[in-house]
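If it is no trouble, can you show me the amino acids of a protein and the C-alpha cells describing how it folds?
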Amino acid sequence: MTRRVDTENNPKLTVRPTVRPPPAPARIDELRRRMIGLAVKLLWNKADAEELAQETLRIALTKKIDLHDDGASAWCLRTVANLCMNQRRRQRPEPLGDWVGEHGGMTPAKQAETTERLERLRDCVARLPPQQRLSLTLRWMEEQSYADVAQVMELSESAVRAHVHQARRALGELMKDDE
C-alpha cells in the first residue's frame, strides 16, 4: 500500500525543485579568474584572455553545462585552452615591454634585459607541441596538481607527467640553442 504525504498542510515537508539554483557568483568569479589566468599564460594578452574566458562561459550556458558540477571547471579550462590555441594560430602575440614595465623599480637596462629574456621564453614555449605547451602551462604556471591537469586534458596522470617532463626537457634545449 502506498502512503500519500500531504505537503500542503504540513509546513515541515517541502517539495524541492529538481532544477539546481544558479551557481554562486563567487564560484563563477573564481572559475572566470582561473580561466583568464590560464588564457593570459597561453596568449600573453590580457584583453584577448578576458574575451575568451567570457566566450567559454557563453558556450557553457549555451550547452547547458552544469557549473555546480566538479567536472565543469575542467571542461571550462579545457575549452578556454582550445580557444587560446585557435587564437594563437590566427594572430601574433603582443610585445612584452608594457608587461615588464608594470612591476616598477627596474632600471631601463634591467627592464630591457627582462623583456628580452621573457620574449625568448615565450618564443620557445610557443615552439613546443600543443599538448606539451598546455601541460607545462597548467602544471608550472598555473600551479595545478597533476590530477587536475589530467582532468583538464582528459589524459591519465602518467601521460601528463610525461608531457610535462618532455616539455621541460625540450624547453631547456630550445633555450640553450637560442643563446
Residues 77 and 93 are 21 Å apart (CA to CA).
